[in-house]
Amino acid sequence: MLQSPKFKQRGLNCEPLVCKLKKALYGLKQAPRAWFQKLREFLVATKFEISKVDSSLFILRPGAQLLYVLVYVDDIIITGNDSQAIDQFVTQLNAQFSLKDLGKLSYFLGIEVQYTSEGMFLSQTKYIRDLLHKVSMDRSNGLPTPMVTNCHMSAAEGSHVEDEHYYKSIVCALQYVVITRPGIAYSANKVCQFMHKPLDLHFKAVKRILRYLQGTLSYGLKFTRASKFLLERYSDASWGSDVDDRGLISGFCVFLGGNSIYWSSKKQQVVFRSTAEAEYRSVAHIAAEMVWIRSLLTELCIPVSTKGLIWCDSSAAIAVAGNPVMHSKFKHVELDVFFVRIKWQLGCFKSAMFLVPTRLWIY
Fold first, then answer.
1. How far is CA 267 from CA 165, 183, 193, 247, in A?
2. For residues 109 and 123, what is the distance between their CA atoms, to the nearest angstrom?
3. Residue 170 half-sphere exposure, CB side, CA atoms within 13 Å?
4. Which residue intervals of the chain bear CATH 3.30.420?
5. What is the torsion angle, in degrees rounded to the nearest 10, for the CA atoms of residue 348, residue 354, residue 360 and residue 363?
């Protein structure tokens, strides 16, 4: 580190001195915010627009050209439809900030990117291997599923684990794996519910997830070109499945052109009085996500002309969304969930019912 201006001193032989670093700038809590503010000011001055749905996304639209800049602290992804414009912007950015151009995107925040003739493939093989090595399970036998179907974990059954911090560190790492592994979304959410007081049965469930990852290291997300650009959502809910408080566990998965782009599995804090109400709440949540995704696609200049399609396995939830007469049976439901009916009437989306023998797809 160079000495600050007006405070420069020289040694005995008049050689220039430097400061000894005691704490890195990234150790300060305000450092990432200050850096992002400076970068944002530069991008805005360069005619970039800040996305309304994601503050870390910047969009430049000079005529027919498109340029996207996605920022995560000091890691930046730059893409667009003109390679020459991308190179010019990288040069301009390098003149303002000292950066390192890593070339074509291949590794970003633990996510590996592979390009194929059909599209691209995202995985976290290295991240998962490091996690398995950290917990000494890199030589364990793999399992075909992350959780058994009849697993009902409780906060009162089992003995207390010795090292709570060890349990929490593994579960937090599993939450990051969900980025490219939607198949463990439900099981990872389930073990996260007991981080305040983990028991041995919960730790066994975590080990099963790790053994599943050990046997499926090559799994990931595959994105391919699609002839039909359709936005679809699959929604489901498990009413009263929590043995402790009978809370609702809802899950959904969003597909764009047949490619999975968004998914979630979450335990709701409200206890519902019926299956129809639980399913309708899940549909309301996914309808809100639908509005957000369509707004993002519009900002990315990717218009979705067709109506979004919501798949739900509850005929009662579909009837409530499309039939105003059913309102009398749902007076106890909060008013905000009825925006689904408004969006339906405005023609923002349509729904369909799918029949499944079980609800294993959520796992």
1. 23, 17, 9, 7
2. 11
3. 25
4. 227-362
5. -10
